[in-house]
């Protein structure tokens, strides 16, 4: 995890965390929980949702005719700053939503007004405290330390900042003020390395300088043999005595 603010996870840590959430599937009930928890984590890690937005989602926000939506719309009443925003769904998140909807059998149109994430065997929605506990527990299991759910949103925002402009990140995150987004303009070691490489005018890190080859005299072309001279032993006509 990064030591500067805001804290984020590195790519290998993200994969370990997701694997830890999916690994607890020894029983049918635990498998349902694992698929649900994995999907919730990806909504924070691949869409940058706040925990409050996550638990406010309805099935109709994530599925249309039993199929995962391509864009998630966060309504003003779901956010802490009342800013509506939309987030395109990544291929990985789309697959997680499909698995979640299939295993939990969330294709019933009558359930379209229900909460997207509920407790097993009940209709009661997941709470923010429950999300906090399960993400922290997954962090302990994955790499021996707790992870706050908001770190997943920080990680998502930091990755976005490296591939697009601040204004786009602001809209995706649903920030009211640009200053809220600018906290993610923190370079890591890879960012600094690429900046130095770009400033030096090289595409790749330069290796040892090559020695200039001095002009070497070209070898003379071999002399091709011409026709052989007449042999001195060639016979002459006998003299007349």
* Mean residue pLDDT: 81
What would you call the shape? globular
Radius of gyration equals 34 Å
Helix content: 40-55%
Model regions low in confidence, pLDDT < 50 over at least 5 residues: 205-209, 211-215, 228-241
The helix tally amounts to 10
Question: What is the makeup of the main sheet?
Answer: 2 strands, antiparallel
In the CATH hierarchy, what is the superfamily of the domain at 11-150? Intergrase catalytic core
N- and C-termini, Cα separation: 119 Å
Determine the strand fraction and express it as a percent band: under 5%
The CATH class of the domain at 11-150 is: Mainly Alpha
Structural class: mainly alpha
Could you characterize the architecture of this molecule?
It is a single chain. The longest helix is centred in the N-terminal third of the chain and has 18 residues, at 28-45. The model is unreliable at 205-209, 211-215 and 228-241 (pLDDT under 50). It contains ten helices and four strands, in the order H-H-H-H-E-E-E-E-H-H-H-H-H-H. Strand 1 (63-64) and strand 2 (67-68) form a beta hairpin. A two-stranded antiparallel ribbon has the order 1-2. It has a domain at 11-150: Orthogonal Bundle (hpI Integrase, Chain A), CATH 1.10.443. The chain has 241 residues and is mostly helical. It is globular, with a radius of gyration of 34 Å. Helices cover 44% and strands 5% of the residues.
